[in-house]
Amino acid sequence: MEAAVGAANWVVGMVLNKLSDELMAGYMASRELGRNMDQIKRDLNYMLGLLQAAEGREIADNLGLQRLLGDLCNKADEAEDVLDELHYFIIRDEFDGTREATPDLGAQLQHARHAARNTAAELSFDRVALSQKIKSLIQDIHSICPPISDLLQKCSVSVPTSMERPNTSSVITQKKLYGRDAIFDQAMEELLKGGIHHTQDYISVLPIVGPGGVGKTTFAQHLYNDNRTKQHFTVMVWVCVSTNFDVTELTRKILRSLDATESQGTNRGYETSDLDQLHKSIQEKLKSKRFLIVLDDIWEHDSSKAASTKSFTKAEWEKLLAPFGTGETNGNMVLVTTRETQDENDKEKLIDIGKQIAKKLKCNPLAAKTVGPLLRKKSTRKHWMEILEKQEWLKQKDGDASIIPALKISYDYLPFYLKKCFSYCALFPEDYKFDSLEMSCFWDSIGIIYSSGKNDKIEDIGSQYLNELYDNGFLMKVDDKHYVMHDLLHELSHTVTSSGECASINYSSFKADDILPSIRHLSITIEGKYVESFKGEMEKLKERVDIRNLRSVMIFGSYKSKRIANVLKDTLDEMMALRVLFIFINSPNSLPNNFSKLVHLRYLKIGSWSRGQMCIPSTVSKLSKLYHLKFLDLKSWDGSHNLPKDFSRLINLRHFLAKNEFHSNISEVGKMKKCLQELKEFHVKKDTSGFELAQLGQLEELRIRGLENVSREEAIEAKLKDKSKLTKLELVCGTSRTEVVSNIENHDDDILDSLRPHSNLTELSIVNLGGGVAPSWLGSNIHVTNLHTLHLHGVSWATLVPVGKIRFLRELQLRNIIGMCQFGPDFPGGTTNTSFRYLKNIMFEAMPDFAKWFGGANSHLFSGLESLHCIDCPKLNDLPLSNCSSSSPEETNTIWFPNLCCLNIKRCPELSLTPVTHTSTLTDFCLDKCVSSIYETKRYKTKLIVTMVLWPSKIWMARTKTTMPQVAFQLEHLRVDSISAVLVTPVCSFLFPTLRELSIYNDDRVKSFSDKHEGALQLLTSLKTLAFWDLKVLQSLPQGLHRLPSLTWLIISGCPEINRFRRTASPITIGVAKALCFQHLHDECSPLFGSQRWRVILSWHRKRAGLLEQGIVLISSGG
């Protein structure tokens, strides 16, 4: 019943959103449907209220109610389709200057219309038929509403009354504490000393836990008002949390309290609802101060007993504490009072129940990860027993399937919107890596993202849903950007798709008879060559399923077979209701013939094989007719970058995921400014209409090229300073300005001054814009103080930007800046104790005059630096990497860069690199072609061995005059350009425990592997990947490859002289081996791997893989 209520709530909400559209309402009124429409909106709003109140409550099973809700869903779906179609024709009227669907709304609408009309064949608008259909659906929905409303009220459990919690303050309400002296002294000691050792990223929290009414608040009040506390802390804040844990509101309360403690008055920074700005304001007020924050009465309520409470998740708690973890002083503290709802007997009972549940988890960590958060949500005996007694446990089987019931129980406790999100993940293939934006686009396109009406962005809501699924154990994070679903959870998603709505099939093995006729969403995974059964099964599928009503069609995988393309085209030719289409095309005619009639399409993802020839298909003129399109993904498109001239008709497009060349080809992009979120590149074209600077809209990301074609007046007209949503900006001139004449310098000065961005900007790049000085908004009174990233390339300013004044700067890149000889110690604009506090990455590249980074008194400001890159700096001779390079007394005992993780030095021949002895965090170290960079190897080794301060996990060493240090690195990845430098026994003896990947590049000296090389290689027992790249004279591979127990990858590229593999008595015997090599070596590879069966896949040249020629991927699949 819960699923039926949730689904009805969902579709009713979508229909109401459509009916609330102004143009839609105008059409209804013009067709004399307005009176009925008002009634149906009232009915639907009343029902929506009942459905939302019923969601999450127990509703008695009622077959009649369930069927009525199903009927309502079907009718609402039909209504949503019809209204969507009507909205499409209204948009078309606006563009074409017609009045087929548009009601007479006056001159305002007339101004939005365009004179030109496309004469190509297009959908016809039948006003009479559409009006009759709308009227019929309104009547049907109106007749269903009363019985559903009546049954919902009768079947729903009464809604509990909300609980009100009293506010508290720091004022002592009970003058004396009784019987608490010992615990009070202990708490005071913790309060005064416990936070002394907190790190920069963490804040100490002192919890006071106990049952309601035991006196937690009184105890905290006495701690707060004790003189020792007042003398110890500079700033003290008391905030009552109670039952509504809202991160933004609580943060605003804290900031309001901080303002109240300042004698100079307030800045009313708490009036914003931007959490980031609130955090920054708090950090600014707390800098250099020791503080105590009291959060009283954090009360996580049992949701079964009250409705109007909001508990908190781990992620929300971390958000609340975020601004307190970066304090500059030690001893900061957050004191918390919270309820303990169980007595000791309850705890013992929970332990017993927990043990019984644990047995059912079969020692499976995935099951524990999903059931754990479920138990943690409500630590009551009733809740835990409810889980233990679930009927799902009776379905347990042997093997991995035994934990499916545990996963299903966790799924059952998810809120409906997360159930919906999770179930639709079944459409993606196993092990599919998806990012937050892709999944947010997908969920929004099929209508399962709800906005609270607070101007929340779709992308933020989708990201929140993903994080909630992750917190509940239903997703895993591959890295900071990508998620993946465990195969057992993927299996679960298939079993819970509601009413058989989703079907995910493998084209080579599926049976059409296994697909339910009710499916609305279909995904097809294509791998390998054409399978004869595919055509027949797809024909059966077309007969079994109503293709016209499919909401999603997602094709994963690439294929060159025309037969596959033709089968897909024939099967999907009748698609009409699609919201989502993922498709791969291998010819200009691969798309279905009715592509331009997909008036409901929100999300389109197209990939291709062709390179440089095929346009966005022969339907290029039709793409711009998809007026409802919100997300267009052409990242996998390898054809032409040309776009239709009227591409800007896609006025609802939010994200255009494609190469920069696509973005720069959008004509009249200003028409898309209402929704488009980013424009990776905008090329100002002097003689081409539609590419003027004035086209720019309210974007979040923008790259402007061709500024040499822009006048000062045009730059002013762009009004970048008014674009408050713009957070990322790149300004590019087409030519380098290393040598400029004065009139061009003045032109550049004027242009940059006129392109002043809004202060909300966080990322700024300026490329090849000269001028004698930096623009005023980057000068001494810097305007863009919220910058996180600053890239300056090819500028010729006399004075560097006052980087010390950019408080939140995290990344600084300086490239090709002629005349800049030094960095520091005196920075333009000066520095403060907060300068460079957040700076993590610095890069100097192609700096012909840069010679020295001076330290001086500013050394402590760079303590957070994690990454330093110096590339192509021919005069660079000094970096403050150790006290050995210091030239002044104050630097002698200075510890520079204690958090450095990555040191990358390339082509800096004058730099004498001394040992980096003071950091224990270095993980990436690169020396590349630093012929004169000869460091003292013995001293370097001794430092490492004695102090154990350098433990890299990845080192890239190119050819230098030094031998490779023979020290106990914890290396996992090693890249060298000399076989003889690494394949020696002393080096391999140290590398063998951890080395996983060895890559050898560009060695033009070794023709074959000597006995010493072979012997050293055998020591690398942990080696999984061995790669040979561009070894032009190497004629044979090592003889003992078969004796490497962990080897799984063998990569050979750019080694033309390898024409034979030595036959070995014992071939390589590994479960899965992969070799990447030339096609002519295929036959020679096989003896290496004995009788194992090989599957051959053609691999095309890919730049990112570093392949220089076409190769063959050989995959051993065993047996």
UniProtKB/TrEMBL annotation:
| Ranges for domain R13L1/DRL21-like LRR repeat region | 692-816
Q: Which residues form the Disease resistance protein winged helix domain?
A: 427-492
Q: Where is the NB-ARC domain?
A: 200-341
Q: Which GO terms describe its molecular function?
A: ADP binding; ATP binding
Record's keyword terms, sorted: ATP-binding, Leucine-rich repeat, Nucleotide-binding, Plant defense, Repeat
Domain of life of the source: Eukaryota
Pfam families (alphabetical): LRR_R13L1-DRL21, NB-ARC, Rx_N, WHD_DRP
The alphabetized list of GO BP terms reads: defense response; response to other organism
InterPro entries in the record: LRR_dom_sf, LRR_R13L1-DRL21, NB-ARC, P-loop_NTPase, Rx_N, WH-like_DNA-bd_sf, WHD_DRP
> What positions does the domain Disease resistance N-terminal occupy?
11-94
UniProt lists the family membership as follows: Belongs to the disease resistance NB-LRR family.
Provide the protein name. Answer: NB-ARC domain-containing protein
Name the species this protein comes from: Oryza meridionalis
